[in-house]
Write a structure and sequence with these properties.
Layout lengths: L2 E5 L2 E4 L4 E8 L8 E6 L6 E6 L5 E3 L7 E6 L4 E6 L8 E7 L2 E2 L3 E6 L1
Parallel strand pairs: 2-11
Antiparallel strand pairs: 1-3, 3-8, 4-5, 4-9, 5-6, 7-8, 9-10, 9-11
């Protein structure tokens, strides 16, 4: 059974930064892609960023140049560094691997 636990969310002002973490247990994730999604109030869940097993990264246009996804395979942890945050980044951020989802961590960007 794979468990994903996100952390690092919080309240930040526009222009600020946060780093989200997704710690995985139950499976060695180094051979798998990992994905961050987010869901804003009243909206559908949307793709944010992904990192492949080889380290390639892909981003949604809305976060490109501001967010960076990375992984530490030794710690079975995936990170999302978020800079230049905007109010529209406010959402619950979820980590995903295969059919497994974390509980989410709330990011609230004040204007």
């Amino acid at each position: 059974q794979v468990q994903l636990v996100e952390s690092g969310g919080g309240l930040v002002q526009t222009g600020g930064s946060l780093r989200l973490s997704c710690a995985a247990s139950g499976r060695t994730l180094s051979n798998y892609n990992m994905i961050w999604y987010r869901q804003a109030p009243g909206k559908e869940r949307e793709f944010v960023a992904t990192i492949t097993s080889s380290g390639s990264t892909y981003y949604a246009d809305s976060v490109k140049g501001r967010f960076t996804i990375s992984r530490d395979n030794a710690k079975s942890t995936v990170y999302l560094q978020m800079n230049s945050l905007k109010p529209e980044d406010t959402a619950i951020y979820y980590c995903n691997h295969d059919q497994y989802w974390g509980q989410g961590t709330l990011v609230n960007v004040s204007s």
